Amino acid sequence: MSSLRVLALGGLGEIGKNMTVVEQDGRIVVVDVGLRFPTPEMIGIDLVLPDFSYLREHANEIEAIVITHGHEDHLGALPWVLRELAAKVTPPVYGGPLTMAMARSKLDEHKLRDVHLVDLAPGDEIDLGPFKLELIHMTHSIPDSCAVALSGELGTVLLTGDYKFDQTPVDGEPADVSRLAQLGAEGVLLLCGDSTNADREGFSPSESGVGPHLEEVFARADGRIIVTSFASNIHRVQQVIDAAAALDRKVALIGRSMRKNVGIGSQLGHIELPPGVMVQAREIDDFPDDRIVIISTGSQGEPLSALRRMAYLDHPQVKLHEGDTVVFSATPIPGNERAVNETVDRLYHIGCDVITTRDAPIHASGHGYAEELKLMLNLVKPRYVMPFHGDYKRIKLHGQLAEAVGIDAASIFRAENGMVLEIDKRGARFGTPVQAGMIFVDGVDIGDIADAALRDRRMLSADGIFIVVATISEQSGGSVADPEVIFRGVPFMDEAGELVDEIKDAVEDALESAFAEGVRELGVLSDRLHDRLAALVYERLRRRPMVLPVVVEV
Question: Pick the catalytic residue: 137, 363, 367, 398?
């Protein structure tokens, strides 16, 4: 009996790292390969990817990778996934033209140039093994956003990607509601829907409504204006440029990703740059303050972003000063609030005026609110619903919205990463789960960094480290030199008095005790020293720095 399997390797119970596997007859289509950014306790970690061990194990079964849109939480893991799969297979990658252009730019950075990237227009249909793939145009905060319809023997699986039903989008191309309704009339087997704003009532405001409010804010500013937004929000950048041009201001782009995305968007016709408006970063100081608008990355307070460096007076090209107005045309992603607040506070310290979404309606979410989620459910009339792309709260609320529009509670599947929804002619049920979790990117390497490693990093960052070097005789096992004590990052050492001398005495005592008991193995000696010294340091400092004993035989 033919069976359809749908499993999320990322994106359930969290915001970010979206990755979904749709499988039938031993063939796989992967929808989205996203990442998310580390939380503060992930010290030293640069990026977080889904654990795609399942794809490694079934690499030869992958027909294609389909990307719904160009945001990092849907596209960002592509280079790492393809590099890991390359030993067995390099599947083709499908998506809209802008999405594929962003993918190409990202792959070029990783020197992955032998990947077959295919531009697919909404409405085009192609065969991928047992599936027929079609992209349906949707509206989001980036052009070329699409829902993915995978039709097979049992019916159609519709994965919405990120979407909203914006009736007046900046580019004049609303979501293809008629095609969604047609799919609903034909019969949708399973809807995997975006849950990001399931907790917000009503309808989301239109993106086109942001432009006039930006122009109002700009008109009140006397000095330079620095606008920060997501670099991928090309429609927002267009509205900032339009508002600047209307007030006879020049525009400069700051931040590598901002310049790159605007360049790609301009080449593909998604953004229009009025003649004479754009200037280079090095030309900013050539114009009066009231003639300049700077569009910058850093709306999420990222440590190395352009705006963060400006806030700490560390940017090589833009030196902020009193009288500048900084406009945050974005809201913090959950988890980034602290970094954003720190950036805002530094801007106030410099003397800047700061405008956020609390002060003016200068941002519109790219994700539909509750009424839009209900509209999607009513349009496609799915037999089964599996809420996607949200934390547990939002997935639960999305399920409640599905029940509210008349879908049977038994047909709504609230899942977690790794849970497998199996559908056949008898119905739908959860099957045996697969491995799912996180893979960390630390520098340029990826891997499953053990909890112990992160725990050690947290300990080092909080309480520092003691390194104690003990030198013993290979023949007698006794100490042959004074122990050496090295400490770094340990708080209140100046108040600890004779602690270093006490540590040295404790080392000598522990070695003598071990020698008397006939203990000679270096590993056992190190363990004894660790336990003795850790207890002593905690007793004196009431802190738990990392204690690293090193025993050397001579």
Answer: 367
Residues 6+ apart with CB under 8 A from 95: 66, 67, 68, 69, 70, 103, 117, 118, 119, 120, 135, 144, 146
Of 403, 102, 65, nearest to 262 by C-alpha is: 102
Give the count of beta carbons closer than 10 Å to the beta carbon of residue 445: 9
Q: Cα separation of 28 and 92, whole Å?
A: 12
Per CATH, which fold does 207-355 belong to? Rossmann fold (3.40.50)
Catalytic residue among 32, 194, 242, 353: 194
CA 112 to chain centre: 21
pLDDT tens per residue, range 67-85: 999 999 999 999 999 999 9
pLDDT digits 0-9 by tens, 379-419: 999 999 999 999 999 999 999 999 999 999 999 999 999 99
Cβ pair 35, 48 in contact under 8 A:
yes
Q: 533 in helix, strand or coil?
A: helix
Domain 451-553: which CATH class?
alpha beta
What is the structure's pLDDT at 346? 94
CA nearest neighbour of 45 among 459, 446, 334, 465: 446
CATH entry 3.30.360.10 includes domain 4-202+365-447:
no
Q: Which is it for the CA torsion 365, 369, 372, 378, positive or negative?
A: positive
Q: Say whether 448 is catalytic.
A: no
Q: What are the two backbone dihedrals, phi and then psi, of residue 211, each rounded to the nearest 5 degrees?
A: -55, -50
Q: Is 324 among the catalytic positions?
A: no
* Single-letter amino acid, residue 379: L
> Cα dihedral angle (431, 435, 441, 446), rounded to 10 degrees?
-130
Look up tokens 């089964």; give the residue: 384
- Structural domain boundaries of the chain? 4-202+365-447, 207-355, 451-553
- Joined together, the tokens standing for residue 36 give 């998310």
3-state secondary structure of 451: helix
